[in-house]
Amino acid sequence: MTTTLHSFDTAIDLADNGNGQYVGQTTSDYANMVGPFGGVTAAAIVRAIERNPDRIGEPVALTVNYLAPVTDGRFDITVRAARTNRTNQHWTAEVAQQHGVTTTATAVFGIRRDAWSDTEPTMPPAPDPESIAHTATSGPVPWMRNYDMHYVDGGIPTEPADSASSTTTLWVRQRPARALDFPALTALSDVFYPRVFLRRGRMLPAGTISLTTYFHVDGTELAAQGTDFVLATARAQRFARGYFDQTAQIWGRDATLLATSHQIVYYKD
Amino acid sequence: MTTTLHSFDTAIDLADNGNGQYVGQTTSDYANMVGPFGGVTAAAIVRAIERNPDRIGEPVALTVNYLAPVTDGRFDITVRAARTNRTNQHWTAEVAQQHGVTTTATAVFGIRRDAWSDTEPTMPPAPDPESIAHTATSGPVPWMRNYDMHYVDGGIPTEPADSASSTTTLWVRQRPARALDFPALTALSDVFYPRVFLRRGRMLPAGTISLTTYFHVDGTELAAQGTDFVLATARAQRFARGYFDQTAQIWGRDATLLATSHQIVYYKD
């Protein structure tokens, strides 16, 4: 019997060199305009911490800072438990290549327990993903081909016209289908094309500088999503002279708010 | 002539030991339930980077992770420029005390330039701060006495009754008045009492684990706010078995969106 790794698992496959040192290889499947898709770099960091023998609990918060493009080839991830408390653990992480540090990160892992719980916002209304055409994505960004994307609102602009709103909402899942786990959810939190493209109706130089994701479910709740679509929605709050923010929600089809995520993005216009 | 430092400047006053090493002292004025107000620790990190001779530009993004309480007395801040690009710079920072690392942080500083700019959300409607009574804060949290807080919505609950909304909006400024700068804006991004208190109508064990702030103005725009009130608004999205998120906006009285901020908070209920 031959088993083939999913392209996503290949992209975040890590050799464990001990003492929190992991080695990965970029793959052409997840290439972006420059370097790999930021979401897959973030996912590899989560995978490295998950695999570390010192790790307790599951992801609660992650911040990833993109210092410089990751170039094709080998990358080294170093993770370190900065502090282990009774029910949570703080991590620092760094991705480096021969040319220097490309990525820094901090993460909080934690153990969830019974407590009063509630979700305040409601899931954006959306027709079933099966009723919306899939967006076939074109050449320049290979990583997008690894996702089925069905845009509900704010699709990639095809005409050079300004939009008053930066909101994009889409049904999305990995292609081929793959059960949702924390690395995959992490990558999904960066699945949106830059909000400035939507407002300006065209592509511009833009890139994520820092990404923060808060996870609201444990591994069992996440696994219950299976390979189904999730509803991802994002908007910007302010575009301010070269930097804009983005705030996002990722919902399970069953209306579970799986994650909320924020990023700050460099742009030139 | 005798000049007296503002209590906030005393709280973030740092001795520069060279090579990115700074030494500060906690002050009783900014004490919280356990250790100092998280906002003042975040502000001290911003101040340390601002003072570093390698620094270029002004704050764009900051993430601060609270690993363990800072105990009364001396604390050491170490900051390091992890990468300097043409128009931005990535920093890592750590606060340590004799008992170990208490706080880790990453920051992006950047240089703003002319570019198409816009703010999407509108400022929440609020009567003038002068028309709303100041909330005199009581004993257990000394740091709150350093702020004039005029609650527009979602004030500190005084009766044990659940609320359907976690939204708090308040006019706030430092007391005594002090011109707004980046350390002060950083501290303001953590000025909200825990959202779970509002939802549950009572105080519970709760503490910020990780705080991320995005800055949308440069120093000149910030200085233009002078000593005036800002309008700060925050809400939670999901309370999930021991951790909830908070998302916030800080507006100048002139409707400038100065900063957006997010945090994840531990709670027990």
Automatic annotation (TrEMBL), chains A, B:
Query: What is this protein's record name?
Result: Acyl-CoA thioesterase
Q: Write one Pfam family the protein is assigned to.
A: 4HBT_3C
Q: Which residues form the Acyl-CoA thioesterase-like N-terminal HotDog domain?
A: 29-110
The record's section on InterPro entries has:
ACOT8-like_C, Acyl-CoA_hotdog, HotDog_dom_sf, TesB_ACOT8-like_N
According to the lineage, what is the superkingdom?
A: Bacteria
Domain spans labelled Acyl-CoA thioesterase-like C-terminal: 131-266
